[in-house]
């Protein structure tokens, strides 16, 4: 089946160019052009090789990566595809070992990085504070014949993750030795940092640092994506059904902590199973209110019955 964008290009409805901007939640895809409102820097263009049919978009690498201020030669590091459908950076096992060896040689001031039980493993999550994270070096990919620099700071390739109230940083690199067409896949570890523009008409790819939230206008509450942050924000409520933070609706707000909760009624520490807890608590509170109403009704009926009995003449 021909992709709808290719049909639009063939019918000359749009130019053969598109761009993708990925944010923490959502993003922007532009067909037939690029959207400068998503970018906070000028576009850097590099030659691009497109597969046929146009499925993969390939750029060249020089055989080495810049780690901090040092250029480190790496095996299988000459071609890369830029792919928004891949979550992490993907390299061969030997390439990852080369990166790890350099880090363990020059950056042992990072807690837990060196030694036999090093946490620097593919896609492994670790507890590391901001001071320790700041000791990690920049990772730079030099793409195209002019070696244009795409730079990742530690907070870009050490991805934030939270589970049951605990905060982690996860290595945003995984390994695969089954990649045959190219050496490296530049996935969303990189694409969350840069807006990518695929100019297929001119066989070139553009990179530009993205604006926060891709320049999208969001409400104050929508900027909170974690339940804990949403619950602590005045005037916001977290919706477990929609998995998002929204302005609190005073007309529909209730004391039931499901499907929406706010303030201390949000038990975010229950993590993934929290919605079950909130549903149970919500139903329980509903049953409790119903029981109280029934009890009060029966007490009222009983009181009227006693009054009627006392008024019967003897």
UniProtKB/TrEMBL annotation:
One protein family per Pfam: Asp
PROSITE patterns: ASP_PROTEASE, PEPTIDASE_A1
CDD domains: pepsin_like
Keywords, in A-Z order: Aspartyl protease, Hydrolase, Membrane, Protease, Transmembrane, Transmembrane helix
Domain Peptidase A1, residue spans: 1-208
UniProt keyword annotation of Transmembrane present: yes
Molecular function as annotated in GO: aspartic-type endopeptidase activity
SUPFAM superfamilies linked: Acid proteases (SSF50630)
GO biological process per UniProt: proteolysis
Domain of life: Eukaryota
Record field: transmembrane: 275-296
InterPro entries: Aspartic_peptidase_A1 (IPR001461), Aspartic_peptidase_AS (IPR001969), Pepsin-like_dom (IPR034164), PEPTIDASE_A1 (IPR033121), Peptidase_aspartic_dom_sf (IPR021109)
Family affiliation: Belongs to the peptidase A1 family.
Protein name according to UniProt: Peptidase A1 domain-containing protein
Organism annotation: Rhodosorus marinus
